[in-house]
Amino acid sequence: MSETVFKTRLTDLLGIRYPVLCGGLLHLADANYVAAVVNAGAMGFISALTFPDPEQLRDEIRKCRELTSGKPFGVNLYISARPDANDRLIPLVSVVREEKVAVVETAGGSPAAIVPLMKEAGIKVIHKAPAIRFALSAEKAGVDAVILVGAEGGGHPGYMMVGTMVQGAIGPERLSIPVILGGGIGHGSQLTAALAMGCEGILMGTRMLVSEEIGAHRAYKQRIVSGDGLDSLVVMTSFKNHHRVLHNEAAEAVAALEKSGSQDYADYADLISGKRAREAYATGDTSQGMLDYGQSACFANEIEPVVTIIDRFMQEAALGLKRIGI
Question: Keywords assigned by UniProt (predicted)?
């Protein structure tokens, strides 16, 4: 496979072999996983909020730097829609700046306040957005690239629920900075399609949950393997905080609360707490917790090393090019 075929503005921007991002996975994206992604030729992001103690994050960054032999890697910074919740992010941002990571993946709220801080430290910023209007705002704020995420994606695909194919076509037409496409992506032919639409790369999340390097219980990974991608549920729609998660007992309970008309966040707090998700990852009890789960789970058919997943993905992308005569 000629790697020059897959050389894009994204690979140039980040100095990576393949135009593939593996997004920050809260509670799961640690140094071991991110280093495996980077060493396989893609770009990974340590999830900062997995390590609320700034010195823990610093240690994780340094561990990743050692495991990658100095190759560039990223950190995910989730910006809450609730300003008070971002207080915990401030010391983590300081660590990211001090450690001079290569790139940050921002998500959630506007990155406008973070961009200047990152630029001062020589750190690139890629913002994840659920719709073109937010991507345009991020471009205006000075980010280096945007990830447009479609409704098929696990986690928070936005309340407008725009499909991935629509995002992939409109993004490159409306934005001048590189566009990366995410949402339901787990097969290499989707990279070929994204490039054909003018995107510069793709983002995977759910597909990578069965990586051997992901620090979760094997029973959790086996549950992903047994899924077909259709066994997800979108909850918290009444709060316009759409969350695509694994269809389990906890998600059903949240859906029932919404159906009852409850608008009291306290009624949901225990069910949606991060503590429940962490317990599920640690114990393998997937009946509890809001467990991000997108439709690309249909491609996650085996627990394998990251490098095996990435290599096969790129082989599928190359085969896709052959099908269209390139």
Answer: Flavoprotein, FMN, Monooxygenase, Oxidoreductase
